[in-house]
Amino acid sequence: MALRDIDDEISLKEAMEKKAAELKMKEMKAKASVKNLTKERLSEIAKKHGILLALNPELKDQVAYLQERYGIPSSKIIKEQITEESIMKKFNRIDYEKLGMLAYQRVLLRKEEIGAGLLPLSEVFDLVNTGQLKDNLDIDDTAKAMEKLQKKGVIENVEEIKSGAIMVQFFPIEYTQDEQKIIELVKQKGKGVISLEDVINELQWTQSRALKSLKSLEDSGLAKYTESMLRGKQWFFPSI
Asked: Which ranges in the chain belong to alpha helices (H)?
């Protein structure tokens, strides 16, 4: 065997070993995210969204307890952890239902507060366009996956807003009367944005009352906060 052939064989072997190590690392990270799903986080998701992640066998008793406590139907119990490997079928065809569920699980497992899970489609795409799926998906694939979840009643809504952006609402939102008044005020103004001063002056509220409701809408994912010297404190409502 020529030296060049030996070098090629060694390079191929090293590349295969590197790829195997990368896949093993991804598998370990995926398992870790499920392992780190604590009883408290499981309870929080069940209480706020009526969904149970039955992915960790060690939390089997907790799942049963939470299902009974919150009256969660079996259809809202997720028992399978979707992996990137399971998304691609033969001939590079995509399993859109599994792709949607992969996004859904990743939203639920995010460490930060997910609120209503109201995300632009581009952000949902970024959540799944990773690892083995990177460069094998485009945003249209993600849109098809979200449409499938909406038709099955897994997610709340997929809607194109005035700007042309597509927003995905993963969970239903229940607003207080004060929050609803702010939403109506934003709709009346027709600009999709409102300032702290607008709320205080138009609704005749105290600053603390206005801030409390605006912060709640921000936490739910419906509003995005920004502050500048020129315009002061403002909240943008991309879906309104």
From this structure: 3-35, 39-49, 60-70, 96-108, 121-128, 139-151, 177-189, 196-203, 207-220
The Cα–Cα gap between 14 and 18 comes to: 6
Q: Are residues 165 and 182 in the same domain?
A: no
Residues in CB range of 139: below 8 A, 6 or more apart: 121, 122, 125
Q: Which residue has the tokens 């249209």?
A: 140
Residues 6 or more apart in contact with residue 204 via CB below 8 angstroms: none
Same domain, residue pair 161 and 208: no
- Are 187 and 159 in a shared domain? no
Measured between alpha carbons, how far is 7 from 25 in angstroms, rounded to an integer? 27
Q: What is the pLDDT of residues 51-79, one digit of tens each?
A: 888 888 888 899 999 999 989 888 788 88
Q: Looking at the structure, do residues 96 and 163 belong to the same domain, yes or no?
A: yes
pLDDT digits (tens, 9 = 90+) for 193-215: 999 999 999 999 999 999 988 98
Q: Residues 124, 128, 131, CA angle at the centre, nearest 5°?
A: 155
Looking at the fold, whether 90 and 165 belong to one and the same domain comes out as: yes
How far apart are the C-alpha atoms of 115 and 139, rounded to whole Å? Answer: 23
